[in-house]
Amino acid sequence: MRVTVDGRGVEVPSSSSVLAAVRAAGRDIPSLCWDPRTSPGGSCRTCLVTVDDDHVVAACTTPATDGMVVRTDHPIATAAVRGTLELLVSSLPARALQMSAERSELVRACAALGVAASPPDGRIADRVDTSHPYVRFDPDLCIACGRCVRMCDEVQGTYALTLAGRGPDTVLVAGADDRWIDSPCVSCGGCVDACPTGALFELGFHDPRPIESTTRTTCGYCGVGCTLDVQVRDDAVAAVTPALDGPVNRGHACVKGRFAHAFARSGDRLTSPLVRREGRLQPATWEEALDVVGQRLRRAIAEHGPDSVAAISSARATNEENYLLQKLMRAVIGTNNVDNCSRLCHAPSAAGLVAAFGLAGGTSSFDASTEPTASCSSVPIQRKLILSSVHA
Amino acid sequence: LRVAPGTLPEENSKMTGAVFAIARLQDVAKRVGAITTADERAAAAELKVPVAAVHGAATFYDDLARTRRGSRHVRICEGTACFAADGGRHIGEVERALGVSAGSCREDGSVSLQAVRCVGFCYAAPALLDGTVPYAGPRLAEKLVRGSPDAPGIPVSASSQPVVLAGITAGEDPWQHWPEVVASWPAQRLIAELRTSGLRGRGGAGFSVAAKWSAAAAGRAPRYVVGNGDEGDPGSFCDRVLMEQDSHRILAGLAYAAHAVGAERGYVYVRSEYPSAVEKLSAAVAEAAAAGHLGRNLHGGASRFEVEIVEGAGSYVAGEETALLHALEGRRGAVRPRPPYPTSSGLFGAPTVVNNIETLASVPWIVAHGGAAFARLGKAPETGTKLVCLNEAFTASGVYEVELGMPLREIIDELGGGLRDVRRLRSVQVGGPLGGFLAPNELDVPLLDSALAAYGVALGHGSLIAIDDRVAAAELLRHVWRFAAIESCGTCAPCRLGSGLGAGLAERVVAGDASALAEQRPLLATLETASMCAFGRGVPASIRTLLRVYADELPT
Predict the structure, then answer these.
(1) How much is the pTM?
(2) How much is the ipTM here?
């Protein structure tokens, strides 16, 4: 269908929101509580635009219709957005707008609409929940937009977070107002990525120095293959974030891929192969190490036959790597002695799937399971990742 | 049981048990008093609901407060009619008489006092509930100490053809045609009759009932119908009259709605400040089931319709339809954006009709006498009758059924008999906190949404609160803003923050700082344009009319 945004016509798929049409037309408007990974919340009221007869609507929750005329610069809507941002800023400590623009959508929105920072008020971050090793929460910066709650409910499926209280006292809490570490949080980091003000943050980003480079990679923790962006500062991993356009994870990750990267800096990390010589493991080159493996395998086959060799591959390897290992065993070594650690740990789930569905795998396509039906909300992405890792 | 097994749509939601968790906490609050985190954890664990969801809901509702509750719990009204009756002095008097301040409990645990916004005794204000026993009228504290409950019944009369009051004033049986309709009327015939009647929702939004029913009927089963008995507007008590004195008419209206949309289950959500209404409706459900009007195999056919009465937990915004559905689901009674509308995605995601009590009570008469007869009443397109509520300030306060279009002056002078004693009328608040104020010289306006809109006033639920000249404008302004701040659900940023800011500005106005009035102006515009629901959008409109009517006292 065709929508006109600020005089410019754009084609958008049916069931697009007005916000999608606005973005398709290349216009940037604030949308603090909107997240591409969740249903729209419509709570922050900063994406107000006018449609058709100067009717003010929240772009994120309003469906676009064919022939709709949208204006992002209508003075009444713009004044209301500015008024709302001013209300938000007036309720926050001055430091809310002192953080760098790349870490706060609120800072960017205020800059775009010319909303001035509050005068210094001396309010310091003395209520930060520091109980959790990865997730920090500064309630004074929270605008109760609920974006993190939707992330936790709809994408992660953990339901660890809630808005509590009512009216002006509304605030985000974890569990039953628990310390974060004591709450049901599973540390996926989704809420941190979703937060538009920096109220939820991780230490890697809290460092005020900028990220120097970003490297796109695939997570090495399991076979699912989540796309991750490694954020580098000082030649070291500062943070790892899930890529929004990752075909499998679509902007989500688990605690391991998201936060468990300290091993890269660990003193006892292996950085080269080790070969046992004279009873001691000693550093070697890959060539030397592979030579040793090749010689020993050849000797074993010569003395005891190919079936004396077996391989157990790892669920942390990708599907492609697992495929190559079995190929090596069958075509080069000449044995069918191949196994994978996931066969052991996922045997019960495979048995259950076979009993229930006749197949130890998904019974519908990955995408089909995200489409909500009238009676069933969509399967959270996290749960689907678990299902697909059964396969891996 | 709030939800019968097998009636919920299959869903993978972890939230289904929340319904029971909140009901459990309501029970704890009534029996024990303060809700603790341990109570929340226990309910969450037992009912397999995320503890965050239980905590989020528990901290939302007034009745599930963490402040201790005494063995005697008194709810004192700070609604608009009680405020207008004596400027709110009754609260201080009762606090002194009980030795406890509002919102707290006496050290020894004997008495606690909770300020609530309207207990529905506006015709005899001020009022309170001692447990569930009402006290109303002057010298409230004195009566409470003496322990002599005194609360007059609601004077009710029909000045028009009784439609909603057909049972109370004319003795018509609301179930009379139900056996015939359920056995032989196609749903479309019922919807067509409603379309002919022109009946619109009486809760304030004024949406066509036939259109709402058709929309829900087009969705896939299961479908639900819900009666909205969360009559939260201070000044309005007509739904209380209906729920207490003609409960069967509401159930019959709900049954017709269920027949029209093909629902097998219905709920009536009744605010906890109306304990007697909860009781009467629950009894009526049992009676109707015994008479074969509700249940399985209705009147020999295959139809089935079951109704459950659900008690609210203290929140004004829970009367907004999306918030009400959240409350029924055991969640925070906060609004959500529409679309999707409840007719396509309502209770537990199923197509749902939410109708106000007075709306439902109109339906049995329309079925009995025909939509055309209803459409002849009122002033098209605003057809039919409306219940109006006159507060204590009137000589003849109470509930009146009038035809839509009757001039307000006739209602006030002829039905209400003008103001009692020697009080002088200063303004009339129409339609509660989201309605608006009219000056004495503006009362020739007819009781029609379209006509009132010219004065910036919304008809709302039809309450008329006469405010005499003893009430100072600044204090009235503070009263309206305070209500907004206390009852804002907090979902959208403008209302969550703007209502509190407005209350602060009004405090300054009361203290004599006139510059606060000017500071209000941009705030009103932001609230009105940016808020998510009718609450945040309606409060500014109401305040603007107040500023117009009281322009001489509040120069801007």
Answers:
(1) 0.91
(2) 0.94
